[in-house]
Design goal:
The complex is a heterodimer of chains A (about 180) and B (about 170). Chain A is built from 3 helices and 10 strands; from the N terminus they run αβββββααβββββ. In chain A, about 30% of the residues lie in helices and about 30% in strands. Chain A is globular. Chain A is α+β, with helices and mostly antiparallel strands. In chain A, the strands form 2 sheets. In chain A, strands 1, 2, 4, 5, 6, 7, 9 and 10 form an 8-stranded antiparallel sheet that branches. A two-stranded antiparallel ribbon of chain A has the order 3-8. With about 170 residues, chain B is an alpha+beta fold. Chain B has one domain: 3-Layer(aba) Sandwich (Chemotaxis protein chec), CATH 3.40.1550. Chain B has 4 helices and 10 strands, in the order H-E-E-E-E-E-H-H-E-E-E-E-E-H. In chain B, the strands form 2 sheets. In chain B, strands 1, 2, 4, 5, 6, 7, 9 and 10 form an 8-stranded antiparallel sheet that branches. A two-stranded antiparallel ribbon of chain B has the order 3-8. In chain B, helix 1 crosses helix 3. The relative contact order of chain B is 0.28. The chains are: A alpha+beta (about 180), B alpha+beta (about 170). Chains A and B meet through strand 4, strand 5, helix 3, strand 7 and strand 8 of A and strand 4, strand 5, helix 3, strand 7 and strand 8 of B.
């Protein structure tokens, strides 16, 4: 697990939160965790597939989620209703999508899965043998914790994403 | 959500359970759900990305999970420790991997993500605008449910299938 993968996510989160919710983001201390993660009130789970694979989780308190959505949609929310849930999930989706563009610029082609929203605190999430880099992002609306558990994948990306070499064309007899 | 995506998962699950745990399974009644999934004790989450995109969950109770792992390892496992967790996650991984091979043979290529394991009952997992097809499977170890929240995604596949054109060919 390499810290360099984290920066695109932190940058993307800062940009997206600023654009969507006019929030200023203050990055907290990084930590590396191996134990299971106990969920916050709201957790957005997005998987990464490609040259970087693993999972990114965005955790926040219910109040933070509601405040974020209220700002994003410019109307007060009281409850995490369907619209609010979809708003929070979309935020995670946009941040991750933006982060993958930055990763692609750095030479790591990665695709993200649709977001999954986990509500209800106290359940445990294990990323198994993937270590998690955890970074809290402090905003005016509360803290958003980004958990990144990824590793580089040296295997071929999606089948069909590369041009197959013509059999025999690359094996020159002189090379042997 | 199309029911045709289900068959590869069911047949892979039957095959893998037979091979890894030596148990046979029967498919129960299908349910199509739109409301969030209330977690059971153990849930394996795996995403598919490609021509088919979405999430697959495998859910079971503690007892079912422990009895599955006990069968897989050939020894009595009493506790959901790291090894047991990784066993259950791996089971989900192998079933999904096999299913993705069958799907790609049917023309729906998809890559799967590494598994994530959720432990704890009563949280709500929402797949948002993806309805879930729930396939219960009755086995000798108990009930395992497969939740499929998938849809076809020809766009992103087309994109990844193209060779990017360099902006200045030949110059790096």
């Amino acid at each position: 697990m390499n810290v360099k993968f984290l920066n695109p996510f932190v940058e993307a989160a800062t940009e997206v939160l600023k654009a969507e919710a006019q929030a200023t983001v203050d990055r907290g201390m990084l930590s590396l965790q191996k134990s299971m993660l106990t969920t916050d009130d709201i957790t957005v789970l997005i998987n990464l597939v490609g040259q970087l694979q693993g999972v990114v989780l965005y955790g926040m308190a219910k109040a933070t989620g509601i405040a974020l959505v209220s700002r994003m949609l410019d109307q007060p929310f009281q409850e995490m209703d369907l619209l609010a849930q979809s708003g929070v999930a979309e935020l995670g989706n946009v941040i991750s999508g933006r982060a993958t563009i930055k990763l692609a610029d750095a030479g790591l082609n990665t695709t993200i899965s649709p977001p999954t929203l986990i509500t209800g605190n106290g359940i445990q999430i294990s990323t198994l043998d993937f270590q998690r880099i955890v970074v809290p992002l402090r905003t005016e609306m509360g803290e958003i914790t980004v958990h990144l558990a990824v590793r580089e994948n040296n295997q071929e990306f999606l089948p069909g994403s590369t041009v197959r070499l013509i059999e025999g064309a690359t094996t020159s007899p002189r090379a042997e | 959500m199309n029911v045709k995506y289900m068959a590869p998962f069911v047949s892979s699950a039957f095959e893998v359970l037979k091979l890894e745990a030596g148990i046979s399974a029967n498919r129960g009644e299908l349910i199509l759900e739109k409301c969030p999934y209330q977690t059971e004790d153990i849930t394996v989450v795996i995403a598919l990305v490609g021509r088919i995109t979405g999430n697959v969950f495998y859910s079971m109770t503690y007892d079912v999970g422990l009895s599955l792992v006990s069968r897989m390892m050939g020894e009595k496992v009493m506790e959901l420790d790291n090894l047991a967790q990784s066993g259950i996650a791996e089971l989900g991984n192998v079933i999904t991997g096999k299913a993705s091979v069958l799907l790609s043979e049917a023309g729906f290529e998809a890559t799967i993500s590494p598994p994530t394991l959720l432990v704890g009952r009563g949280a709500a997992i929402s797949t948002l605008d993806f309805p879930r097809l729930v396939v219960p499977m009755e086995t000798e170890c108990g009930r395992i449910c497969i939740h499929l929240a998938l849809r076809e995604n020809p766009m992103s596949y087309e994109k990844t299938n193209q060779i990017p054109i360099p902006s200045r060919p030949g110059i790096r």
